[in-house]
Amino acid sequence: MINDVPYVIDCGYGTSKQLITAGVALNRVRYIFITHHHSDHNLDFGPLLYNAWITGQPTRVDAYGPTGLQRMTRDFFNYLKFDIDTRMVDEGRSDPNSLITPHEISKAGVVMTNDDVKVSASLVRHPPIKEAYAYRFDAKDRSVVISGDTAYAPELADFAKDADVLVHEVMYLPGIDALIKRLPNAKRLREHLLVAHTLPEDVGKIAAQANVKTLVLSHFVPGDDASITDENWSEGVRKHFKGRVVVGKDLMEI
Ligand SMILES: [Zn+2]
Ligand SMILES: [Zn+2]
Predict the structure, then answer these.
(1) pTM of the model
(2) Helix, coil or strand: residue 241
(3) I need a surface site. Which of 94, 225, 237, 246 has the fewest CB within 10 A?
(4) 100-104 and 61-65 as β-strands: parallel, antiparallel, unpaired?
(5) Distance from C-alpha of 238 to C-alpha of 247, rounded to nearest angstrom
(6) Ligand lying nearest the CA atom of residue 12
């Protein structure tokens, strides 16, 4: 939230419901930023726009993300063409296509600015996806950086330099090894995870080098193993980073 305006970064499954639970009415959504086009980051992009339209149309939504965002927006409204056409006639609603402006970003740099914030993007390392971004929000009172999904990317330390808050993804190796024992596509999946995500020790290095005040761990890989404790997630980080470490939870305020 900046100056009471929500900035939504990524739209995984359940985004609309979680925003409502967080006390953010959907028609207040004004800016959306997508880090990359994996489904755990964009699956509910369309539904969020749609739910906003259904619950009381916001004046305008600007969405930013990698190449493909415009087609995804158009295709989603096509997917619901019958309902849109019906409601426009039957309920007198305006065309939802006019509500949203999708902006595709194809390189690092400043993404947008307004009176409250400057938003910049930096490429991160998330193979095989080439267009995967971290975002930095420089507001008057605070700077916040979101890593998106990335393998260890030392250049992220420069991008996050002196930020108040760095939200970084994290992968716990013993958890991966436990996970792959349960899965038939284990070998392939393990290879993908290891080249695409960051171990706690490396997250700690980034946070220390960037000199951030607070590090928030988020996007836990694996995310469905309740036996992994907060201590497991953070102990490797603390070997390198001496600042405040927060193990992120749903609906947490930082
Ligand atoms: Zn991803
Ligand atoms: Zn992800």
Answers:
(1) 0.96
(2) coil
(3) 94
(4) parallel
(5) 12
(6) 2
